[in-house]
Q: What sequence folds into this?
């Protein structure tokens, strides 16, 4: 949360204002975002850092070079994002 601190402060202010005004759906949208935003805190640091390194820093997934370790090394294929 240290990045864009003012944005997060405003979001929490809006969240509580929506709750005070009885606007539960608007408050829930903000709460859902922060539930997802903080979900990475549940990951072990080693897993998170390895994922950042492999997927973002070395871009192995985008290059089609990411492999899944195990009994056999399986190459992970990325697919075009779908909406």
A:
């Amino acid at each position: 949360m240290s990045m864009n601190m003012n944005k997060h402060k405003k979001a929490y202010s809006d969240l509580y204002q929506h709750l005070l005004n009885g606007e539960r759906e608007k408050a829930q949208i903000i709460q859902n975002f922060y539930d997802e935003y903080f979900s990475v805190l549940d990951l072990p640091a080693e897993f998170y850092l390895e994922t950042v390194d492999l997927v973002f820093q070395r871009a192995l997934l985008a290059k089609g070079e990411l492999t899944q370790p195990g009994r056999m090394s399986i190459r992970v294929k990325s697919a075009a994002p779908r909406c």
Summary: The chain has three helices and two strands. The chain has a mean pLDDT of 84. The longest strand covers residues 67-68.
